[in-house]
Write a structure and sequence with these properties.
The structure is a single chain. 17% of the residues lie in helices and 42% in strands. It is an alpha+beta fold and 178 residues long. It has one domain. Strand 6 and strand 7 form a beta hairpin. The protein is globular, with a radius of gyration of 17 Å.
Protein backbone atom coordinates (compact mmCIF):
# COMPACT_ATOMS: atom_id res chain seq x y z
CA UNK A 1 0.00 0.00 0.00
CA UNK A 2 1.38 3.41 -0.91
CA UNK A 3 1.02 5.98 1.82
CA UNK A 4 0.71 9.59 0.69
CA UNK A 5 3.15 11.88 2.40
CA UNK A 6 1.76 13.66 5.41
CA UNK A 7 1.79 17.36 4.67
CA UNK A 8 3.14 19.84 7.20
CA UNK A 9 0.77 22.63 8.14
CA UNK A 10 -0.05 24.61 11.23
CA UNK A 11 -3.81 24.53 11.57
CA UNK A 12 -6.24 27.05 12.95
CA UNK A 13 -7.55 24.41 15.34
CA UNK A 14 -4.11 23.89 16.89
CA UNK A 15 -3.49 27.61 17.03
CA UNK A 16 -6.84 27.94 18.81
CA UNK A 17 -5.84 25.22 21.28
CA UNK A 18 -2.53 26.96 21.96
CA UNK A 19 -4.29 30.29 22.47
CA UNK A 20 -6.90 28.72 24.74
CA UNK A 21 -4.25 26.88 26.73
CA UNK A 22 -2.16 30.01 27.11
CA UNK A 23 -5.06 32.42 27.66
CA UNK A 24 -5.78 31.74 31.31
CA UNK A 25 -2.12 31.69 32.21
CA UNK A 26 -1.04 34.76 30.22
CA UNK A 27 -0.62 37.01 33.29
CA UNK A 28 1.48 34.32 34.99
CA UNK A 29 3.58 33.77 31.84
CA UNK A 30 4.28 37.50 31.60
CA UNK A 31 5.33 37.56 35.25
CA UNK A 32 7.55 34.49 34.77
CA UNK A 33 5.40 32.26 36.98
CA UNK A 34 4.54 28.71 35.96
CA UNK A 35 0.83 28.20 35.17
CA UNK A 36 -0.89 25.76 37.49
CA UNK A 37 -1.71 22.36 36.00
CA UNK A 38 -5.39 22.90 36.78
CA UNK A 39 -5.36 26.17 34.78
CA UNK A 40 -3.88 24.40 31.77
CA UNK A 41 -6.40 21.54 32.00
CA UNK A 42 -9.36 23.90 32.39
CA UNK A 43 -8.43 25.96 29.33
CA UNK A 44 -7.83 23.00 27.02
CA UNK A 45 -10.25 22.90 24.10
CA UNK A 46 -13.22 20.58 24.47
CA UNK A 47 -12.51 19.37 20.92
CA UNK A 48 -9.42 17.48 22.13
CA UNK A 49 -10.33 13.78 22.24
CA UNK A 50 -6.97 12.32 23.21
CA UNK A 51 -3.24 12.96 23.20
CA UNK A 52 -0.38 10.46 23.31
CA UNK A 53 3.32 11.22 23.46
CA UNK A 54 6.48 9.18 23.17
CA UNK A 55 9.55 8.37 21.13
CA UNK A 56 12.15 10.99 20.41
CA UNK A 57 13.73 13.01 17.61
CA UNK A 58 16.96 14.96 17.10
CA UNK A 59 17.38 17.46 14.29
CA UNK A 60 18.59 20.89 13.29
CA UNK A 61 15.72 23.31 13.81
CA UNK A 62 15.28 27.05 13.30
CA UNK A 63 15.13 29.13 16.47
CA UNK A 64 11.85 30.98 17.06
CA UNK A 65 11.45 34.44 18.50
CA UNK A 66 9.01 35.13 21.32
CA UNK A 67 6.40 36.42 18.85
CA UNK A 68 6.55 33.14 16.88
CA UNK A 69 8.46 34.56 13.93
CA UNK A 70 11.43 32.56 12.65
CA UNK A 71 14.66 34.08 13.92
CA UNK A 72 17.36 34.98 11.45
CA UNK A 73 19.95 32.86 13.19
CA UNK A 74 21.81 29.68 12.53
CA UNK A 75 19.78 26.53 13.04
CA UNK A 76 20.22 24.99 16.47
CA UNK A 77 20.41 21.35 17.47
CA UNK A 78 17.01 20.31 18.76
CA UNK A 79 15.89 17.27 20.68
CA UNK A 80 12.46 16.33 21.87
CA UNK A 81 9.57 13.92 21.64
CA UNK A 82 6.54 13.27 19.47
CA UNK A 83 2.92 13.82 20.39
CA UNK A 84 -0.24 12.91 18.52
CA UNK A 85 -3.43 14.83 19.18
CA UNK A 86 -6.89 13.65 18.15
CA UNK A 87 -9.52 16.36 17.71
CA UNK A 88 -13.24 16.28 17.04
CA UNK A 89 -14.09 18.16 13.82
CA UNK A 90 -17.21 20.27 13.31
CA UNK A 91 -18.82 17.27 11.53
CA UNK A 92 -17.95 15.05 14.56
CA UNK A 93 -15.38 12.99 12.66
CA UNK A 94 -11.82 12.99 13.97
CA UNK A 95 -8.66 14.74 12.87
CA UNK A 96 -5.20 13.60 13.89
CA UNK A 97 -2.08 15.75 14.21
CA UNK A 98 1.52 14.62 14.64
CA UNK A 99 3.59 17.14 16.56
CA UNK A 100 7.24 17.53 17.44
CA UNK A 101 7.80 18.96 20.91
CA UNK A 102 11.23 20.41 21.67
CA UNK A 103 12.73 19.99 25.10
CA UNK A 104 13.87 23.54 25.78
CA UNK A 105 15.47 25.09 28.85
CA UNK A 106 12.27 26.99 29.61
CA UNK A 107 10.00 23.97 29.12
CA UNK A 108 8.50 22.03 26.21
CA UNK A 109 7.86 23.99 23.01
CA UNK A 110 5.88 23.06 19.90
CA UNK A 111 8.22 22.85 16.88
CA UNK A 112 5.71 21.83 14.21
CA UNK A 113 2.37 20.16 13.71
CA UNK A 114 1.38 17.90 10.83
CA UNK A 115 -2.15 16.86 9.96
CA UNK A 116 -2.50 13.17 9.13
CA UNK A 117 -4.61 13.82 6.04
CA UNK A 118 -5.11 10.13 5.31
CA UNK A 119 -7.29 9.86 8.42
CA UNK A 120 -9.15 13.10 7.68
CA UNK A 121 -10.02 11.85 4.19
CA UNK A 122 -11.40 8.62 5.69
CA UNK A 123 -13.95 10.63 7.74
CA UNK A 124 -13.24 8.27 10.63
CA UNK A 125 -14.02 8.41 14.33
CA UNK A 126 -11.04 7.83 16.66
CA UNK A 127 -12.06 5.72 19.65
CA UNK A 128 -8.64 5.27 21.29
CA UNK A 129 -4.90 5.81 20.81
CA UNK A 130 -2.00 3.93 22.42
CA UNK A 131 1.77 4.24 22.08
CA UNK A 132 3.50 1.14 20.75
CA UNK A 133 5.56 1.07 23.95
CA UNK A 134 4.47 2.38 27.33
CA UNK A 135 7.89 2.02 28.99
CA UNK A 136 8.68 5.72 28.63
CA UNK A 137 12.14 4.83 27.34
CA UNK A 138 12.84 5.07 23.62
CA UNK A 139 16.05 3.39 22.50
CA UNK A 140 15.98 4.67 18.91
CA UNK A 141 14.70 7.86 17.28
CA UNK A 142 11.14 7.67 15.97
CA UNK A 143 7.65 6.99 17.25
CA UNK A 144 4.85 4.49 16.77
CA UNK A 145 1.27 4.51 18.02
CA UNK A 146 -1.86 2.47 17.42
CA UNK A 147 -4.98 4.39 16.45
CA UNK A 148 -8.33 2.67 16.95
CA UNK A 149 -11.00 4.07 14.65
CA UNK A 150 -14.40 3.44 13.15
CA UNK A 151 -15.65 4.47 9.73
CA UNK A 152 -19.21 4.09 11.04
CA UNK A 153 -19.80 5.00 14.69
CA UNK A 154 -22.41 2.22 15.00
CA UNK A 155 -19.78 -0.44 14.29
CA UNK A 156 -19.05 -2.54 17.38
CA UNK A 157 -15.31 -3.19 16.94
CA UNK A 158 -12.88 -0.51 15.78
CA UNK A 159 -10.25 -0.97 13.08
CA UNK A 160 -6.61 -0.61 14.16
CA UNK A 161 -4.18 1.64 12.31
CA UNK A 162 -0.58 2.46 13.06
CA UNK A 163 1.11 5.81 12.82
CA UNK A 164 4.82 5.15 12.39
CA UNK A 165 7.59 7.76 12.34
CA UNK A 166 11.02 6.45 11.37
CA UNK A 167 14.41 7.69 12.53
CA UNK A 168 14.46 10.26 9.68
CA UNK A 169 11.11 11.77 10.70
CA UNK A 170 9.18 10.30 7.77
CA UNK A 171 5.67 9.26 8.80
CA UNK A 172 3.27 6.60 7.52
CA UNK A 173 -0.33 5.94 8.53
CA UNK A 174 -1.38 2.39 7.62
CA UNK A 175 -3.65 -0.42 8.79
CA UNK A 176 -1.92 -2.32 11.62
CA UNK A 177 -0.58 -5.71 10.64
CA UNK A 178 -0.33 -7.41 14.02
Amino acid sequence: MVCRSIKRSMTGVLVTIAILAAGASAPRAQSGEEPQSSEIAETLSTRVLSAVSGGFWEAEIEAKQADGETAKATPVKGRGYYRIVALRSADNTSRLYLQRIRLADDGPALVDSVEVTELTEMKAYITDMRPESSTGIAERPGFAAFIYLKLDPRTVEPDTYELFVDEFGDAAFLPATN
